[in-house]
Amino acid sequence: MDIEQLIDDVIEREGGYVDHPADRGGPTRWGISQQVARALGYSGAMADFPRERAVKAYRLLFWTRPKFAFVAELSPRVAEEMFDTGVNMGTAVAAKFLQRALNALNRKERDYADMAPDGKIGPDTLAALGKFMEVRAGNGEAVLLKALEALQGARYIDLAEKRPANEAFVYGWLANRIG
User: Fold this and answer.
1) What are residue 33's DSSP bridge partners?
2) In terms of pLDDT, which residue wins out, 130 or 24?
3) Are 102 and 125 in contact (CB under 8 A)?
4) How far is CA 69 from CA 79, 83, 167, in A?
5) % of the chain residues with pLDDT over 70
């Protein structure tokens, strides 16, 4: 797995400049919102936001800072899924999805202890993932990925139900981010 390729894929999927009226995040370029760009010190027009700055933002905010690189050491495929989910829903949501899925898959704590779904990748989450990968070798990773995508898909439907304006995005989310 190559983080540079993951970033290139996200940038390709997100496209260039977008200012969709139903998007609460406002204008984006390369999938980076104006709010994120401003927090990183960019003060220009979003239509001119440089791709190189987007690459740096993705690496820092959606890979390094949330510690998904540590997840990649145990399961590159899970880390890839978390990166993509983090970009679209926030890294804390992606981490909570992993924590919830691991808790549900631990066979009543027989394989490893439950953890608090706090949205942060730390020693408990990494230990649980490592143990899961060991105990459920074979198709365990595929099952865990299905659980993560099920949680993500359910959240998309929930977002559309709670805010009908999100219906403008739900088809694309499901088409491009699930399975």
Assistant:
1) 28
2) 130
3) yes
4) 7, 9, 32
5) 99
Residue with tokens 């009908």: 164
Inter-CA distances, 135 with 13, 129, 130, 132, Å = 35, 10, 9, 5
Contacts of 3 (CB under 8 A, 6+ apart): 59, 63, 69, 72, 83
Q: Answer whether 4's CB lies under 8 Å from 10's CB.
A: no
Residue 86 token pair? 């983090």
Cα–Cα distance between 153 and 104 in angstroms, integer?
A: 17
Strand-pair partners of 32: 29
Residue count of the chain? 179
Question: Between vectors from CA 80 to CA 39 and to CA 58, what angle results, nearest 5°?
Answer: 20
Q: pTM of this prediction? A: 0.90
Residues contacting residue 24 through CB under 8 Å, at least 6 positions apart: none
